[in-house]
Amino acid sequence: MYQQYLNQAVRTLQNLTSDELKDLLNDDDKLDERVDQAVQSLESEKDLLLGENRSLAESNLEKEPKVIELRSRVNDLSEQGRALATSVRQKSDDLKTKSGSTNPDTVLALLQTAAAESEEESEQIVKQFLDNEIAIDVYLDKFMSSRRTMHSRKLKAEKMTELVRSGLSGTASSQQQP
């Protein structure tokens, strides 16, 4: 730590002539003056470093509440992330379990049943309208919604039928190949 100051003092002494060194050695006041200059330089450097250190410490203390708050937030978010990851894993496992046990023919039958129920519901809405049980604006809203649902379900049922047939024909052809 003090090595640089010692090196600096040695350099200043190296620049002196033999006569100047002898004068310095014989004159205690001059020697004390040089030592005092070196000590004063060290003291001023020390004061500067203490000031910088104090300034940094005050700055750190000012930031401490924010750091504590952010650290707490990171911990909360980490905990939420772990909880969400666990939830995703559980739901993924449930989905794998349920999808593995569901027969495509069962799903197709359920889709076809749901489409038929939607069609019956829309016919019931028409009957209510014809019997003047509901107003035209209510009829239009209910009927359009019901028909949209019915067509969507029928379309899904048709697509599922194609998938089941292609799956069955793909399975049959793969079983026929030796």
From TrEMBL:
<dbReference type="InterPro" id="IPR009851">
    <property type="entry name" value="Mod_r"/>
</dbReference>
<dbReference type="GO" id="GO:0031902">
    <property type="term" value="C:late endosome membrane"/>
</dbReference>
<dbReference type="InterPro" id="IPR037202">
    <property type="entry name" value="ESCRT_assembly_dom"/>
</dbReference>
<dbReference type="GO" id="GO:0043162">
    <property type="term" value="P:ubiquitin-dependent protein catabolic process via the multivesicular body sorting pathway"/>
</dbReference>
<dbReference type="GO" id="GO:0000813">
    <property type="term" value="C:ESCRT I complex"/>
</dbReference>
<dbReference type="GO" id="GO:0006612">
    <property type="term" value="P:protein targeting to membrane"/>
</dbReference>
<feature type="domain" description="VPS37 C-terminal">
    <location>
        <begin position="85"/>
        <end position="174"/>
    </location>
</feature>
<keyword id="KW-0813">Transport</keyword>
<protein>
    <submittedName>
        <fullName>Vacuolar protein sorting-associated protein 37B</fullName>
    </submittedName>
</protein>
<dbReference type="InterPro" id="IPR029012">
    <property type="entry name" value="Helix_hairpin_bin_sf"/>
</dbReference>
<dbReference type="GO" id="GO:0006623">
    <property type="term" value="P:protein targeting to vacuole"/>
</dbReference>
<feature type="region of interest" description="Disordered">
    <location>
        <begin position="79"/>
        <end position="101"/>
    </location>
</feature>
<keyword id="KW-0653">Protein transport</keyword>
<comment type="similarity">
    <text>Belongs to the VPS37 family.</text>
</comment>
<dbReference type="Pfam" id="PF07200">
    <property type="entry name" value="Mod_r"/>
</dbReference>
<comment type="function">
    <text>Component of the ESCRT-I complex, a regulator of vesicular trafficking process. Required for the sorting of endocytic ubiquitinated cargos into multivesicular bodies. May be involved in cell growth and differentiation.</text>
</comment>
<keyword id="KW-0967">Endosome</keyword>
